[in-house]
Specification:
The complex is a heterodimer of chains A (504) and B (256). Chain A contains 19 helices and no strands. Chain A is mainly alpha-helical and 504 residues long. Chain A is globular, with a radius of gyration of 26 Å. Chain B has two domains: 160 residues, Rossmann fold (3-Layer(aba) Sandwich), CATH 3.40.50.300; 68 residues, no CATH class. Chain B is built from ten helices and ten strands. In chain B, the strands form two sheets. Chain B has a six-stranded mixed β-sheet with strand order 6-7-8-3-9-10, with helices on both faces. In chain B, strands 2-1-4-5 form a four-stranded antiparallel β-sheet. In chain B, helix 4 crosses helix 5, helix 4 runs parallel beside helix 6 and helix 9 crosses helix 10. The chains are: A mainly alpha (504), B alpha/beta (256). At the A-B interface, helix 11 and helix 14 of A face helix 3, strand 6, helix 4 and helix 5 of B.
Chain lengths: 504, 256
């Protein structure tokens, strides 16, 4: 791409380079080679499957709720991704000061940033669908090349939706809170369809029958969900139908430019407020004089808990983990097989929650030098930090176990035992296999290298396995227990060097 | 205090034969330094001379390859807790907790140094008022400017009333008013018999505040003394008894 310095194309190239380097870090070449090979395989699969597949696709259009439903689920995920990218690109990334102080127009900067978000949003659908378009060109279905404009316009449309949603949050909540709320909302949009798909499992039988009847009526030829419905135009557009293609392309591209035109001024002023005027987030005034706590344990525990409670990223992660469990919860209680469904699920969630908090308290300490220069034993500090991770999750688990013991004492005891074991295991692995990180990287902590993440996962699987065995599969218990024990021992063994470096 | 340490009586900081290498690069090379209690001492040197590495070893953050560090008679590697109890270290870019308020931060630091809660609260108020942060006591640190963060970090370093303060570029990012209040605070602190060792690139600060100055180059102390002593040492080369610290510094650190 040749572009003169300062042009929008030149700026876009810079944005894309930054995005590209942000994808894989030091493993970029591995991702490029692996992705290239996978894409070649997908081309081959599309080439082989296309003649029959095309007929199948056309047949699916007669029952559009399947193909169209899949499209809209994908759109919801892309909007979620666009929101996350918008928050990162327009609020989090600290280069707006540099760009806005340059002679480039604000509109160009905003447009290019929007385009770069759209490119990142389009990557996955392009990766999945373009092999079909390419194969179609050579297999006698040139209409499938319409996948190109549909992917591009869908990505632009989703980016516009993501930007407008983030903009609304920015306007309602201010830049600082919008960032957090945007991340949470993006996560919820991502999980919403999962919950919708679980609805049939959760509804009572009568409601389920009524819903099925409504769906049948809606899917009739003239119904709102019938084959002629405009809801399914994007899928028809991909097969090259002219009117849907025109509408989808115009909608996506038009929506994007409209969103840019409507929001760029507000975004730029909003993000500047975040830098210059962001003094709004304040804790409650503590009155005339400070009342301090004393004692290392109390001070350290309260400090860790305050930081976790005030970190919306951690809260949103925790909420999501609980949200994913809701269908399992209903399933378990409706089927009466809590021991088979619910106990292992809850053990997994407690381990994940505790692992996340322990990673933040132990490995993502914001001021390690302060603690290192304090006259306290580092080992003692680490144990207190582990306790800071285990105690709140245990506090949530205890009342649940007590209430549950009234219905199923064995399942409740299993939950308490395995949940506590899984939590302690997750926290210990953070201590035994330390690797310094930044709390902002919580979501990607498993990708930060080192064996700790995998060992923690193995430990969780072991404890979940033990909980599942208590549901009647006792002969597998030794294997599950061996996995849990092996994870802890491996962490202890592999982490010796790192521990020596930190503990001295 | 035992044996060798008794020789360090009256000395706030004694560094003997301190060495540290990173791979092939020798950052600190058999460095010796003795700073008596109650002295304001400036450690100067060009970028990469080994100042920060030295201070980090003195603070117990970095393990030396060789040599010893004694703080008020306590060897940092053997009597770590006792030495740290008497010391405060302020790095050049202190990391604070964005989601804590200044009071919560100081409460935490006071807890680390096991201060009684009542005394810590009173001291925190004094420090925040002095540094003009009391009005911001309810705000999260994440919204603070660099200067405000620096002042809060300094308050954290002073809250437990250390006998020795090790400050790496403590005035970076402070406005003139804040810099003045910090300088006044440090002078007052030293006047009460405490010791300050600081690094700075602002030579005027060292010239005005420090009683003695050490100049470090390539990991070694190349000159040490009062400003007059340093002047006399380089006077022949500079040719003037009224040479500024800048003249002296440039002369002593001139590449061979």
């Amino acid at each position: 791409m040749s572009a003169s310095p300062g042009s929008w194309l030149w700026l876009l190239r810079n944005e894309l380079r930054l995005n590209w380097r942000g994808i894989g870090g030091s493993h970029l070449w591995l991702i490029a080679v692996g992705g290239g090979l996978l894409w070649a395989c997908m081309h081959w699969a599309a080439w082989v499957a296309l003649p029959g597949g095309y007929k199948f696709f056309q047949m699916m259009l007669k029952v559009p709720i399947l193909s169209g439903g899949l499209f809209w689920v994908s759109v919801s995920l892309l909007v979620s991704q666009a929101m996350t990218s918008t928050v990162t690109a327009l609020i989090d990334r600290g280069d707006l000061d540099l760009l806005l102080s340059s002679p480039l127009s604000q509109r160009t900067i905003f447009l290019v940033r929007g385009l770069s978000i759209a490119v990142s949003v389009s990557l996955l659908p392009a990766f999945a669908l373009l092999p079909v378009a390419h194969a179609g060109l050579f297999r006698g279905f040139p209409g499938l090349m319409a996948i190109y404009p549909v992917v591009i316009s869908t990505a632009l449309g989703c980016t516009a939706a993501g930007m407008l949603l983030t903009m609304t949050l920015l306007r309602l909540l201010g830049a600082r809170r919008a960032r957090t709320a945007g991340q949470i909302m993006a996560a919820f949009i991502g999980v919403a369809f999962f919950l919708v798909f679980q609805l049939p499992n959760l509804l009572p039988a009568d409601t389920k029958r009524a819903f099925a009847a409504w769906l049948n009526t809606g899917m009739q030829e003239s119904g709102p969900l019938g084959p002629a419905s405009a809801l399914w135009w994007p899928v028809r557009a991909m097969l090259g139908e002219a009117l849907p293609l025109l509408a989808v392309t115009a909608g996506g591209i038009g929506g994007f430019f409209l969103a840019v035109g409507l929001t760029y001024r507000r975004f730029i002023s909003g993000t500047q407020e975040a830098v210059t005027g962001g003094r709004a987030s304040s804790a409650k005034d503590s009155g005339a004089g400070p009342l301090f706590r004393s004692g290392l344990v109390r001070v350290l525990l309260f400090k860790e808990w305050k930081l976790v409670l005030r970190d919306m990223q951690v809260i949103s992660q925790a909420l999501l983990q609980i949200l994913y469990l809701i269908p399992l919860f209903f399933l378990g209680f409706r089927s009466g097989h809590q021991d088979q469904y619910l106990t292992p699920g809850l053990v997994a969630v407690t381990a994940m929650l505790c692992g996340n908090i322990a990673w933040i308290t132990i490995n993502a300490e914001d001021a390690p030098e302060l603690i290192a220069t304090a006259p306290v034993s580092v080992a003692r500090v680490l144990w207190i930090k582990a306790a800071a991770a285990v105690l709140p999750v245990l506090a949530a688990l205890l009342p649940l176990s007590v209430w549950w013991s009234l219905r199923d004492p064995l399942a409740a005891a299993t939950l308490l035992l395995c949940g506590t074991g899984a939590m302690i295991s997750a926290a210990l692995i953070q201590i035994w296999c330390p690797r310094a990180g930044n709390r902002r990287d919580l979501k990607n902590r498993h990708k930060q290298g080192g064996p700790g993440g995998y060992i923690e996962l193995a430990g969780t699987i072991g404890w979940v396995g033990i909980a599942a065995c208590a549901g009647g599969y006792w002969r597998w218990l030794p294997l599950a227990a061996a996995v849990a024990a092996a994870a802890a021992l491996t962490a202890w063994f592999l982490g010796r060097g790192a521990r020596e470096a930190i503990w001295g | 205090m035992t044996g060798e340490n008794e020789n360090d009586a009256g000395s706030a900081l004694t560094v003997k034969g301190l060495s540290k290498s990173f791979g092939q690069k020798c950052a600190v090379d058999k460095l010796d330094l003795a700073i008596p209690a109650g002295e304001f001492h400036a450690l100067l040197g060009p970028n990469g001379a080994g100042k920060t590495t030295t201070l980090r070893m003195v603070a117990g953050l970095l393990r030396p390859d060789a040599g010893s560090v004694s703080i008020l008679g306590h060897d940092i590697s053997k009597e770590t807790t006792a030495a740290k109890n008497l010391t405060a270290f302020l790095p050049d870019d202190p990391l604070l907790y964005g989601k804590l308020t200044p009071l919560e931060y100081l409460e935490f630091v006071a807890g680390l140094w096991a201060m009684p809660a009542g005394a810590a609260g009173k001291r925190a108020r004094e420090l925040l008022e002095w540094l003009e942060l009391w009005g911001n006591r309810g705000e999260y640190v994440e919204g603070f400017s660099r200067g405000m963060r620096q002042k809060l970090a300094l308050a954290g370093a002073m809250i437990h009333d250390p006998k020795l303060m090790i400050l790496d570029e403590p005035l970076t990012g402070l406005d003139a008013r804040a810099a003045r209040s910090v300088k006044d605070m440090l002078v007052d602190y030293v006047s009460r018999g405490n010791t300050v060792v600081l690094t700075t690139h602002i030579l005027e600060i060292a010239e005005r505040l420090a009683e003695r100055i050490s100049i470090i180059l390539n990991g070694r102390i190349v000159a040490q003394g009062t400003l007059d002593e340093l002047r006399s040492r380089t006077g022949a080369a500079i040719g003037s008894a009224g040479a500024t610290l800048e003249d002296v510094f440039l002369e002593l650190t001139e590449p061979a």
